[in-house]
Here is the input.
Amino acid sequence: MEPAEELRYLVLAAQREGNRQLAQALKPLGVTPSQAEVLRLLAERQPLSLSGLGALLVCESGNNPSRLVDRLVTTGFVRREEGARDRRHVELTLTPAGHEAAREVAAVEAALHARIAEAAEGRDLDAVVGFLRTLVEGQSAGDAVALRAGRAPAEG
Here is the structure.
């Protein structure tokens, strides 16, 4: 196996394993990893429009998280409200139950991040992160990560 091919499969394996662990830890909360990402983004940045949320999501391809949001509205975690100036503009906010769920998700994520940090101990994480940024630069998921980190997305 060539090094670039092995890298591709290792990135895929790490993503799948991380998502599996996250899904398992979120199961008692009744949310999926994708729903958890929406809850955390709203907790950090609400109110958000549907397109604003879509621009920040890594879990969903494209910029239309309607089905994801619909499910969270149905479960009582997210509220949709017409914009004050434009009724066609919908703002998304968390309900009190959504705030509580977001706090619980944050604790689950913190535990996962601690396990990742432990596995990375003694390694040059800055080099790995820099390489991965370059690899996804200019792609929608890479742009979402850049925006969430407070960096401008790469110009395409």
Notes: The longest helix spans residues 96-120.
